[in-house]
Task: inverse folding
């Protein structure tokens, strides 16, 4: 059930109305839990069992870890949780990929091996809820939170439908206390929540799906046929599509949660105006980048083991971050590029600190970061390296563009300008300055845009596949 | 820089709400949206547009399911646009005493669908097939019809019937039945920019009904150019200029059609044998299959007669398969119908044609009324 679908509109209307009718407390929580399971079952009901298994196992293991005094046993219990969760993720997400790579490996030594047909559908959202669930057991192991939550509360933390299938990857430490003492959404919260849902839907349906996706799809589907400005439009088009798609989804998730009184963290903060790559990763998919930082980069040693070890840790984190997005070497390539960017930036900052100061340096760094981020999106979107090469080759050959390609370029330039202007300001601060007339105009624009863009082929959110 | 301060917000438990009212702007916006939609619907109504359902593989799958569930009571229609446009299902139901099930697929060979129902022993009703000469050259079955058949099989094999796609399709269908903005599968943007306020908007002459039956009102289209366009497409000409005086266009098309060669299908015999096997399989379980050559007129008829001479195609098909068949030219009551676009009947002729066709079929002793 997509946020931009009619079925979700009906689903939300029913769940929200019932939620408002019930008194604050257990009834509301149970309603949200049942609704979240129904939301998940809409994709593939049998996969609800995997979600239930993962939930119950982690809840149980966390309690055992919390009670256990012996360090060895606690560690063993954590390893069980890690193995169980990552095995599920590995089997469903990387099974086919592993088999085909194994086949390729055997072929290099002359062994013909035909892997069995892999007809297993990836359970939607498994990457997101696995990471959310793991954050709980790890935090309990680290004694950062107590494992005193009830099974029902924990199940709602894992399955709460606004974040279930594509994040933000909420932390147990942030959401469980809210579930334990369910908040009552104020009229202001509901109004603002619905407003950001509208903005998110406008991002997704109008900007990502209607204006940018056709430009990007055309260029990536026939990379050798587009040159010069047209190829550039395709590259910028995808950079815009993925931002407005996932950024739009995240805004919807935050807004929906707010309608029920729950606070989710920001997932994007003007990423295309980032000053360097470390700054980019503080602005792009923040809930994933902080998860990788807290549960991978820092446990690997972070920046504590010298320059070489830091570089290794950065590369490993970004390679695995790339692989998290999907079972493909193209995602690993994207991760490798970002790892290399981070390592290079770190070295340059250490060697030439003066070059990173001042307004001119800031502007140059921002433009350079945006350009390199856009180039890194090429392997992320392209099905193979040949497509990447063809697209980059097309860029070198002068050629014009048609109207929708120019529009994609202009839209992206406006996006960068908007990010630049608001990179240190939260959306809430910007919105607070809007007069009632501006608020009404913007919400109407979003509603009319979403209505006008409806009725075509509904695209799933890009991050659902991850 | 704020970005570095914000990274700890991952543990946020409350969000700042921008000061000022949000409910009123939201309510006013919703009212404005509804007013805008009503204005658009009103403008579309003024231009003669009306809501209609949109055909899809899911809708076809639902009808395909009915073909199985109705058993002997089903009268299954297989074919392409003529099966969809020329027959009135209510009249067909009244005349045959059966429940019509429309499985026609616009612009597609009937072979994949006939193969699918032949292979399904639960389909035991009668079948009317819109005969297409071109289908006898179809060996690959790589038509859109294959996708429809696959979708229907996928839905049949679903262990759990509750699924998002089915719910979404039902809701979208409901919306399309009541809103002109979605007529013919268009979206509101197309309706706004090319229909509601454009004096040159193409009128909505084609309507799909919930039963998948279609109706064409040719009084709404520009004639004779729509007819020339259809004749050119039917003959496979994509390089004929359809501008200029009607007489000149007609002469140019006629000249090209006279030069058409007869089609040569090396697999004709094999395909005919396959079709015969399908027919026998349906008949073996009590079903009945009748092939019908639907009317065509003018240049479309001329082009078909040149490319598919009756003796080499229809007559040979009947002989090779031994199948039951009705050719409109053999039934005087059917020859009186004129196709405005050369290929399909106008909606005003559907009922009369359906009665005439069912009479012709029953006169031959086929498709007797179901008790």
Result:
């Amino acid at each position: 059930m997509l946020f931009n679908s009619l079925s979700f509109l009906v689903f939300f209307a029913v769940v929200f109305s019932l939620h408002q009718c019930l008194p604050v407390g257990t009834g509301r929580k149970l309603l949200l839990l049942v609704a979240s399971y129904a939301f998940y079952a809409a994709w593939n009901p049998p996969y609800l069992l995997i979600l239930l298994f993962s939930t119950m196992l982690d809840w149980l293991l966390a309690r055992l870890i919390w009670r256990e005094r012996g360090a060895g046993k606690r560690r063993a219990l954590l390893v069980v949780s890690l193995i169980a969760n990552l095995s599920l993720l590995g089997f469903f997400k990387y099974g086919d990929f592993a088999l085909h790579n194994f086949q390729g490996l055997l072929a290099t030594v002359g062994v013909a091996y035909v892997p069995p047909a892999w007809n297993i559908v990836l359970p939607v959202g498994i990457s997101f809820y696995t990471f959310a669930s793991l954050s709980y057991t790890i935090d309990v192991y680290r004694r950062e939170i107590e494992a005193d939550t009830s099974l029902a509360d924990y199940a709602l933390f894992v399955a709460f439908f606004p974040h279930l299938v594509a994040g933000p990857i909420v932390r147990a430490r942030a959401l469980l206390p809210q579930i334990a003492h369910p908040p009552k959404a104020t009229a202001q919260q509901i109004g603002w929540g619905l407003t950001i849902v509208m903005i998110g839907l406008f991002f997704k349906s109008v900007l990502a799906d209607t204006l940018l996706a056709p430009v990007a799809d055309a260029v990536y589907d026939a990379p050798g046929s587009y040159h010069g400005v047209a190829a550039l439009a395709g590259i910028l088009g995808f950079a815009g599509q993925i931002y407005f798609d996932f950024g739009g989804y995240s805004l919807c998730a935050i807004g929906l949660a707010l309608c029920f009184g729950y606070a989710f963290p920001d997932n994007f903060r003007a990423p295309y105006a980032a000053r360097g790559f470390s700054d980019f990763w503080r602005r792009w998919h923040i809930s994933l980048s902080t998860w990788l930082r807290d549960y991978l980069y820092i446990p690997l040693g972070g920046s504590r083991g010298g320059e070489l070890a830091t570089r290794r840790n950065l590369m490993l984190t970004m390679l695995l971050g790339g692989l998290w997005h999907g079972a493909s070497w193209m995602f690993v390539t994207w991760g490798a590029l970002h790892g290399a960017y981070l390592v290079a930036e770190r070295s340059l900052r250490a060697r030439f600190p003066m070059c990173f100061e001042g307004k001119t340096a800031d502007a140059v760094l921002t433009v350079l970061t945006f350009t390199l981020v856009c180039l890194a999106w090429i392997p992320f979107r392209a099905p193979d390296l040949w497509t990447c090469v063809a697209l980059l080759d097309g860029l070198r050959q002068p050629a014009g563009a048609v109207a929708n390609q120019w529009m994609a370029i202009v839209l992206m330039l406006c996006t960068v300008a908007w990010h630049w202007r608001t990179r240190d300001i939260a959306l809430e601060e910007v919105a607070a300055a809007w007069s009632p007339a501006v608020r009404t105009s913007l919400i109407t624009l979003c509603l009319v845009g979403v209505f006008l863009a409806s009725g075509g082929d509904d695209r799933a959110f890009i991050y659902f596949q991850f | 820089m704020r970005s570095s301060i914000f990274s700890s917000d991952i543990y946020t438990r409350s969000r700042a709400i921008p000061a000022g009212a949000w409910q009123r702007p939201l309510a006013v916006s919703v009212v404005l949206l509804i007013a805008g939609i009503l204005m658009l619907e009103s403008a579309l109504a003024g231009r003669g547009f009306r809501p209609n359902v949109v055909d899809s593989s899911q809708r076809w799958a639902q009808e395909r399911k009915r073909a199985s569930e109705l058993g002997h009571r089903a009268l299954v229609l297989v074919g392409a646009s003529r099966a969809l446009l020329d027959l009135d299902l209510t009249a067909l139901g009244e005349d045959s005493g059966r429940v019509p099930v429309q499985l026609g697929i616009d612009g597609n060979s009937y072979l994949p669908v006939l193969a699918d129902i032949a292979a399904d022993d639960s389909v035991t009703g009668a079948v009317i097939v819109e005969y297409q000469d071109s289908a006898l050259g179809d060996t690959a079955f790589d038509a859109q019809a294959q996708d429809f058949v696959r979708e229907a099989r996928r839905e049949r094999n679903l262990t759990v019937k509750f699924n998002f796609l089915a719910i979404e399709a039902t809701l979208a269908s409901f919306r399309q039945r009541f809103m002109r903005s979605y007529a013919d599968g268009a979206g509101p943007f197309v309706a706004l920019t090319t229909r509601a306020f454009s004096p040159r908007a193409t009128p909505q002459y084609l309507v799909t009904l919930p039963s998948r039956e279609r109706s064409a009102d040719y009084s709404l289209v520009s004639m004779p150019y729509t007819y020339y366009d259809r004749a050119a497409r039917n003959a496979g000409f994509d390089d004929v200029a359809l501008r200029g005086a009607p007489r000149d266009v007609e002469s140019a098309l006629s000249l090209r059609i006279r030069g058409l060669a007869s089609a040569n299908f090396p697999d004709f015999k094999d395909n005919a044998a396959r079709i015969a096997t399908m027919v026998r399989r349906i008949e073996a379980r009590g079903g009945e299959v009748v092939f019908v050559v639907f009317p065509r007129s003018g240049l479309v008829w001329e082009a078909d007669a040149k490319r598919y001479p009756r003796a080499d195609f229809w007559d040979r098909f009947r002989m090779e398969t031994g199948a039951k068949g009705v050719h409109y030219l053999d039934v005087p009551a059917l020859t009186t119908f004129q196709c405005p676009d050369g290929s399909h009947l106008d909606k005003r002729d559907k009922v009369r044609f359906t009665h005439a066709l069912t009479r012709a079929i029953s006169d031959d002793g086929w498709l007797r009324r179901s008790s």
